[in-house]
Amino acid sequence: MRHAFLGITLLLAGGCSTVGDYMSGDDSDDSPAALAEFEASLQLQQLWSSDAGAGSGNQGMALTVAIDGDHAYTADHQGRVTALALADGRKRWSTDTDLQLSGGPGVGSGRVVVGTLDAELLALAADDGKEQWRARVSSEVLAPPQVGQGVVVVFTVDGRLAAHDADTGARLWLYDSVVPVLSLRGTSTPLISGDAVLAGFANGKLAALGLRDGRLLWETSVAVPRGRSELERMVDIDGAPVVSAGTVYAASYQGRIAAMSLQSGTLLWSREVSSYTGLGAAGNKVFLSDDSSHVWALDSANGAAYWRQEGLFARRVTAPVAVGDSVVVGDLQGYLHFMAIEDGRFLARIKVGDRPIVATPLVVGDTVYALDSGGRLVAVRVGAGG
After folding, report:
1. Do 329 and 317 contact (CB within 8 A), yes or no?
2. Sign of the four-CA dihedral 165, 168, 169, 170
3. Exposed (0-12), middle (13-18) or buried (19+): which is 229, by Cβ within 10 Å?
């Protein structure tokens, strides 16, 4: 069983406390794979690189990059929220919140929303960064809040999913889940899909709830805890689910990847694999990075493996994202790796910084936006392959 790079949280009668923090990887005997040489067949062009704040630091905060319209938004562990132009990376505004930011940003409905270690939700105006409202939540926020249809959805570390009005911050509803004694430090990022919000929980279940009223629409077990110890029974869903063509896909740590009907939650297929980084999807394939940093492409119809790329073993890669005819992941040394969607062979590689890329890259058109843990945001254009 591999536990490198994971934080583990113990739930006690009085709340939550950290049992271990493995984000540095020092507890693992697995050395990152050396990068093999290959002939690049995909053209890459770094368009710009910009200082987007102090980054997520070394504490595993869920501070990422969000894109809305022609702007990218970032938040850092020192409390700063920044907006940059997608075209050239120039800073449009920057706001110092004086808060311990730990999750975000989420963006939509004219708002940029972040969460804190002190159980607070903060909304800024997307156009100028001015504070709009603050709201209390039940516990620390360790996943980016999501915004859609005038609703802000936030998942707190105590297993509660809450919705707030995007204009006022007033709470609309609260959904409570059972959190196991041991769980990974972090929570799944909720996904707003139409009039529903999807969320994976530390008990291995995925649920769909009504976005407006929090009514439980369905709940499905992605993984069932097994083993004698609490450590062996951890089956957290920490990565964000993904929806494609009416099907929702989710993966759990020490468990399975599963495909479910978006409408009913009916389990369509599953296969044993352990992942905590999230998923990607394109065409008839679903992509994931497992807990050994092997990258997989599975048939979206039945879960059969098309390919598995093992060349990035223990490099702490992000969830894969499709861009053109390739999929891209970031790694612990600041590299972006591009693999062919067809067969997983390496197409190109580019080093965009010296700090780990811990946030899943975002793709807009033919451009990949990657944020490293030190707060450097880079835009890379993907060209034609050979």
Report:
1. yes
2. negative
3. exposed
pLDDT of amino acid 22: 36
Long-range contacts of 36-40 (CB under 8 A, 24+ apart): 36/311, 36/346, 38/345, 38/346, 40/347, 40/348, 40/349
Residue 13: predicted pLDDT: 32
Which amino acid is residue 179, in one-letter code? V
Cα 367 to chain centroid distance, Å, stands at 19
Alpha-carbon span 267 to 252, nearest angstrom: 15
Encoded tokens for 210: 């009504």
pLDDT, tens digit (0-9, with 9 covering 90-100), for 226-261: 666 666 555 678 789 999 999 999 998 877 899 999
Tokens encoding 97: 């919140």
- Choose among 298, 194, 294, 295: nearest CA to 243: 194
DSSP 78: T
Which two three-digit tokens encode residue 347? 């197409």
Q: Assess contact for 59 and 23: CB atoms under 8 A.
A: yes
Which phi-psi region, left, alpha or beta, contains residue 180 (left: φ > 0; alpha: ψ -120 to 50)? Answer: beta
Given a cut of 50, the residues of the chain with pLDDT beneath it are 1-6, 8-28, 183, 386
Integer Cα distance of 62 and 318 in angstroms: 13
Dihedral sign computed on CA atoms, order 198, 202, 205, 210: negative
pLDDT at 2: 41
Q: Nearest CA to 119 among 96, 102, 133? A: 102
Q: Is the dihedral of CA 181, 100, 351, 83 positive or negative?
A: positive
- Measure the CA–CA gap between 134 and 151, rounded to whole angstroms: 14
Q: At which residue do the structure tokens 């951890």 appear? A: 234
Q: What is the pLDDT of residue 178?
A: 74
Looking up tokens 């790796």 gives 337
Specify the length of the chain in residues: 386
Distance between CA atoms of residues 143 and 56, nearest Å: 12
